[in-house]
Known about the structure:
Blueprint: H1 2-7, H2 24-37, E1 42-46, H3 52-61, E2 65-69, H4 78-107
Parallel strand pairs: 1-2
Amino acid sequence: xxxxxxxxxxxxxxxxxxxxxxxxxxxxxxxxxxxxxxxxxxxxxxxxxxxxxxxxxxxxxxxxxxxxxxxxxxxxxxxxxxxxxxxxxxxxxxxxxxxxxxxxxxxx
Length: 108
């Protein structure tokens, strides 16, 4: 995604790459401190179209004013795209449940 941003003319200074996480939830949790230091609640998530809704849900949960940019897939096979879309339905439900659980833990 960083390369796609560069090719679109986004300067490196405007790209923050978090490479320590393994999940969308970890990724957005990990960037909170970094963006807080920059006093930057507005973010653009560069992600795949099928992943957009889950990424936005998590970002907004953490208080980001988020938008998504979804470049067209380049050389991804149709099978992989279909598999990814099918995976997102249960992933959205799981993340919704997971975020509600986190809210209950922090308030109780």
